[in-house]
Amino acid sequence: MTTEKQGAGSNPRVLDALRQVVDPELGINIVDLGLVYDSDVRDGLVHVRMTMTTPACPMEELLMEMVHSAILRELPEARSVDVDLVWDPAWNPEMMSPAAKAQLGRT
């Protein structure tokens, strides 16, 4: 999955909300990190399909809480948030946006 395809079918308002969720270890938002694969809003239900940088990510619980909070805060029509944590495709550094790569010194 390339950065251009990642989140291509996603709801732009959800992505904007998720840009406020910053990985505490890397200091980069989860959208630019390439962790958000897809999002949708239907009848007040927000569905997000995302991953972590690794299945053993120590920040998983915190990031999930931050995702829920950001969406409920930024999308007033959201009544509930469903996050589908997936491992396929596995995340890799090529999924990061150019800005995230530059911030981490990867060009």
From TrEMBL:
Top-level taxon of the source organism? Bacteria
MIP18 family-like domain residues are 13-83
Q: Name one Pfam family in it.
A: FeS_assembly_P
The UniProt entry, under InterPro entries, shows: Fe-S_Maturation_MIP18, FSCA_dom_sf, MIP18-like
Gene3D superfamilies from the UniProt entry: Fe-S cluster assembly (FSCA)
Q: What is this protein called?
A: MIP18 family-like domain-containing protein
In its UniProt entry, the species of origin is given as: Nitrospira defluvii
Give the organism's phylogenetic lineage.
Bacteria, Pseudomonadati, Nitrospirota, Nitrospiria, Nitrospirales
